[in-house]
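Annex B, item 7. Sequence and C-alpha cells for protein A, then protein B.
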Amino acid sequence: MARLLAACALASLWSASARAGVIWDQIGATGSDLPATGPEGFYRYGSQVFAGEPQFDLIALDDFTLAGESRIDRFEAVIQGYGNWSGTGAIQGFVARVFASPQQAAAGWSNAVATVQLTAPSAYTAFGTGLLCGFDVDITLGAGRWFIGLQAIMPGSGGQVGVVISTLGAPAQAFQANPGGGFSVPGNLIERPVNLAYRLGGSAVPGPGACVMLVVAAGFLERRRVS
C-alpha cells in the first residue's frame, strides 16, 4: 500500500507539472499587440492604490475563464505611468485582486475572493507601450469566470499608474472600479471597450479521480509482480 500511495503522490505531482504553463495571455510575445492608442483615446487605464488617499483607489479589471479548478502561480502585467509620473522608483509595491464580478469590486475591496500583496520588482522590462512586470503568486480558483486586476501602490504625488491595453482577447471589455467613490463615477464602476495586458501562468488541479485511476493501475502491476 505504501508503494501505491507513493506512486499516486508522484504521479499527481508529475501531472500538475506537465500541465503547468500559460493559462491566459493578453500580453503576447513581441509587444506588437499593445497599441499606442485605443477606442477612447487612451492606451492605459488607471489601476492604483493611492497611499494616504483611499477614496481614489481604483482597479483595472479584465476577465478570464477556467474550465476547472486551477492554481495560478504567475501574474504578469504591462503598466505605464501618466499625469505627474515620476518613474517606477515611486512605486512602493503592488496588490493583485480577484473578484467574481466587477460589481463586487465596486462595492468594496473586502469582496475580493483573493488578495495578494506583492513587493515591487527589482527591475521592469520595456515592452510594447509600457513596462512588463511579473510576480509569483499562489491563487487557487474553481471553474468559472473571474475578474483580475493589478494595482500599483504609489502616492498621488508620484503621478498615476495604469495597465496598458491589448488587442488580444475577445470581446474587448474591461472595467475600472473605484469603491471609495473619489472619482464620482456612477455606481463606482466604468466599463471600458478594451482588453488589458495581463497574463496568467498556472496549471489545472488534478481531480481525485485521476489519483484513483493511478492507484488501480499501480495495484494491477503489483499483483502481476506477486503472481
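Protein B:
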Amino acid sequence: MEERLSDRLRPFGLAVGVYLLYRVGAPLVTFLGDGFVQVALSTLVFMALATWVVMRAAGLPLRPAAALGWMLFLLIGFVAVRVSPAFLPVLRQSPVALEIVLGVSDTLMVLAASMLGLAVSHIIREPNILAPAALFAALVDFAVVSLWIPHVMQAAPQALSTVAVHVPQVGAKPTPTGLRPIGIIGPADFVFLAFYFACVWRFGMAARATYIWMVIALAGYMFFQNLVGSLTPRFMDAVDMLPGLVPMAVVLLIVNRKYFRFSREEKRAIAVTALIVVGIIAFAFIATKR
C-alpha cells in the first residue's frame, strides 16, 4: 500500500503544482490581448490541467473514510482562503491579490470535490453498474442545472460564484473586483469527474484514453458555451445552464465500452434507457427555455 501510494502521490503532486501555477498565473498575463484565440487556448489548457488533477486525485488509494476526512480538511482550507480578503484589507487592494486568493481557493475546491467523488465511487462494485449510474447521473445533473440552479441564482446571485471554480483567461483585462474569468464550473462536475476516474482506475479501464477524450469533450463543450453565448446573447442563459455530466457520461461509456460485459438483454435495456434519458433532457430543455 505504501509503495503504491508513493507511486501515485508523485504524479498527483506534479499535477496539483502545475495546475496551481497556471490557475494563479494565467489571469495575470494581461499583455497578450483578449480575443478568440486566447479564449480557445485558455479553455483547452485549463480543462487539460483541471482534469489531470482530478484524474490523479481519483487514483489515490484512499479508503472512503480517509477521502472524506481529506475533503473536510480541504473545505476548511477553501473557506479560510476564500473569506480571507474580508479580514485582511491588503488582499482587497489590487485585482492581482484577489486573483491569487481566488486561484488558491479554487484549487482547494477542485481537490475537495475530487475527494468526495473518490469516496462515493466505492459504491460501484463492478463495471457494469457504472454504465446505468452514468446515465442516471447525467439526467440528475440536467435537472439540477436547469431547474434548481436558476432559482438559487435568482435568490442569491453570488451563491454559485462563491463556491464554483473560475476558469481563468489569459489576456483578460482586470476589473475592480478581480480578473475576469471565462466562466465558472460547479463543484458537482468535479465530484462526478473524480467519481468516474476513480472507477476507471479501480477497474483497470483506459485511464489515459478517457483523460484525453474527456479533455477534448469538456473543452469543446465549454468553448461552445462561450461562443454561442457571445454570438447570440439571447441564448446566453440557455447555454450557460448546459449540464457538464452529459459529455462526461458519453465519453466514459464510449471510450471504455470494451470493459463492460453486458448480455444482449442488458444492452437493449441500456440503449432504451439512454434514449429515454436523451429524450427527457431534450424535451425538458426545450420546454424550460421557451
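Comment on protein B: Residues 2-288 form one domain.
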